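Let us work through a complete example step by step.
Step 1: write down the sequence.
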Amino acid sequence: MQIGDISDGKDIARKSGQLYRYVLCQECGLPCWKGLRVCDMRFAFARCYSCAGKLGGNSKARECPYTDSEGYTVVRIGPDDPYFPPGSTVAEHRVVMAHYLGRRLLAGENVHHINGKRGDNRPENLELWIVAQPAGQFSGDYVLARLLEMPQSLRGRVLAALESSLANGMAPATLRTPNLDS
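Step 2: predict the structure and record it as tokens.
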């Protein structure tokens, strides 16, 4: 592709039947596709979606990374990423998992946060699920995550209380939180 090239939208994953021109963004200098009518009427103001969003000219564009309404971190994909289309926005935990696996995620694969914190996208906190995730968090994951966050001295007391309760024949579901203040 060369600057000035014209293409139908269907050939560049845009609106079919509309013509687009390949131009340089006047703000950042990166190449982008703009509708031909926009280029002809306002060629001096051609801006990519990212720059248009920063300047208030496009409500769909957002500066990345950002946190979406569900608490997930969203990132913009760079030009050299082998697993996602360049320039697209994707939840960061999906990007981390794809790079960890060394392949694209398949349809039906979900990435689960073990500790329930959607902003914690470390590979060791992510699991790949091949079925839909239930609402909430697996209780074992939750308990383990809370134990690991505790100071070492408190963690030892909680584990000792758990072992004592299990030794006395109490099922884990019937355990009550021990009084840790004593």
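Step 3: interpret the result. Residues 69 and 118 are 11 Å apart (CA to CA).
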